[in-house]
Amino acid sequence: MLKLRYRIVEEAESLKISTKGRYALRMLLDLAEHRDDGFIALKEIADRQNISKQYLEQIITIINNSKILRANRGKLGGYMLAKEPSEITVGHILRVTEGNLSSIACLESDVNLCQMADTCKTLYMWKELNKVIADYLDSVTLQDILNKNQELQIDNYVI
Fold first, then answer.
1. Vertex 23, ends 52 and 19: CA angle to 5°?
2. How far is CA 134 from CA 33, 111, 115, in A?
3. Digit-coded pLDDT (tens) for 61-75
4. What is the mean pLDDT of the chain?
5. Are 69 and 76 in contact (CB under 8 A)?
6. CA-to-CA distance for 137 and 140, rounded, in angstroms?
7. How far apart are CA 110 and CA 118, in angstroms?
8. What Cα–Cα distance (Å) separates residue 107 from each residue in 96, 112, 114, 122?
9. CA 132 to CA 135: how far, in whole Å?
10. Can you tell me the distance from the alpha carbon of 154 to that of 149, in angstroms, rounded to the nearest whole number?
11. Residue 24, beta-bridge partner list
12. C-beta neighbour count of 140 within 10 angstroms
């Protein structure tokens, strides 16, 4: 019974998006919002987003190899998006920072190593859930989020 309980907890935790993923998204949204300002210092992003610069440095290390960012060193250095915000999906960002976005542990790799995989009556449902999550996250871009937030700000305008 303890083994089963542990497995359920382990699987439930695989769907959570960590602080790293959420902060990476906030950082990249900040860069998208300020893309006309050129290279942005990490300290500026940290101040605007109320995230420690040291934590953003850790995230930058992970994101640097994903071709999402351009970096410039020196006095006027900083970071900027390497692509248009409309070309960067939330799914891509979260896969870079979180790894696999599977809803359950047995679907985290291409080969399902679960002993119950051949007889599992709910496996198809979890696969479909993963597909819905991936399709949704891959359909939302940084530009979509910026547009939605601008729309919400207009709707909240009070005279």
1. 95
2. 25, 18, 25
3. 999 888 999 999 888
4. 87
5. no
6. 5
7. 15
8. 18, 6, 9, 12
9. 5
10. 9
11. none
12. 14
The per-residue pLDDT for 6 is 41
CB atoms within 10 A of CB 32: 20
Q: Which residue has the tokens 């993923």?
A: 21
Contact of 12 with 5, CB cutoff 8 Å: no
pLDDT at 71: 93
For the chain, what's the residue count? 159
CA end-to-end span of the chain, whole Å? 61
Look up residue 107 and give its DSSP letter. Answer: G
Neighbours of 47 (CB within 10 A): 11
Residue whose structure tokens are 């860069």 = 31
Give the residues across from 141 on adjacent strands: 89
